[in-house]
Write a structure and sequence with these properties.
The chain has about 260 residues and is of the alpha/beta class. It folds into 2 domains: about 130 residues, Butyryl-CoA Dehydrogenase, subunit A, domain 3, CATH 1.20.140.160; about 120 residues, Response regulator (Rossmann fold), CATH 3.40.50. Helices cover about 50% and strands about 10% of the residues. It contains 12 helices and 7 strands. Helix 2 crosses helix 3. The longest helix has 18 residues. The radius of gyration is 21 Å and the shape is elongated. The N and C termini lie far apart (about 60 Å).
Length: about 260
Amino acid sequence: MSLLARLAPHLPYVRRYARALTGDQTTGDHYVRVALEAVAAGDRVLEESLTPRVALYHVFHAIWLSTGAQLEAPSDDGSGVEDASRRLMRIAPRSRQAFLLTALEGFTPSEAAQILAVDFSEVERLIAEAQSEIDAELATDVLIIEDEPVIAADIEALVTELGHTVVDIAATRTEAVDAVARKTPGLVLADIQLADGSSGIDAVKDILARFDVPVIFITAFPERLLTGERPEPTFLITKPFQPETVKAAIGQALFFHPRNTRKAA
C-alpha cells in the first residue's frame, strides 16, 4: 500500500486537530501540508512501531516544534459568543495539545504520549492541568435529573468538587421543566428512566426547545439512545459510572459548547 493510501483516511482528522490548535483552518492546513511534504521528501519518517494515524500526528508535532510555531488567540468577532478555539488559547500550549489529542481526537493517553514524545505520566499531568484550567474557567449552574437519591448525591458531590453549583435535582420530567423555569442551568446531567415512569429524554427535549445548553446523559440504559434513529448524544455515560469519567465529560461538554460571554449592561 502506498504512503498516500495509508495516510489518506487520517488527513481530515489531523486537519481538524491543526485547526483546533491554531484557531484557523488556513494556518492549520499549512502545517499539515508541510508535515506531508517532509514525509514525502524523506525528511521525516513515519515510525514503523506506531499506527499510521499516531505516526502522522507524531510527524505533525515534530514539524510544529521545529518551526517554533506560536499559537495565537483568535480575534474577537464581536458576536459575544465564545467558541472552543478562543477558550483553547488560554490553556498553556503543551497542556492544550494533550487535552485536544485525548478529548477531541480520541487518542488514549498512551498514544498521546507517543505523539508528543513524552512519557505517560507527563501526559497525565498535562491533561490534569488542562482539566483544572477548564474547570476553574467554566464554572456554571448545573441541573441534575436523577430519581435515585444516592446516585443524585454522588453526582452532586462530583459536580461541586469541580467548582460548579447544583441549582436543582429533579426526579421527574415535570420537576425538571419546572426547575429550568426557575433557573436556567449552564449544564444538564440527565438519567433516562425517572421516578414516575417519565423519560429523561423527553425532559431534555423540553429543555432544549427553550435553551441551548450542553447535556450529559448518565444512564443504565444506553441502548435507548444508541438506536441510530435520532441524533445520538455526544456525551453518554453508562451506570455504574467512574467518577473520573463523569468529571472528564463535564469538562469536555462545557468546553466545546459555545457560550454567550456578552453580559447585560
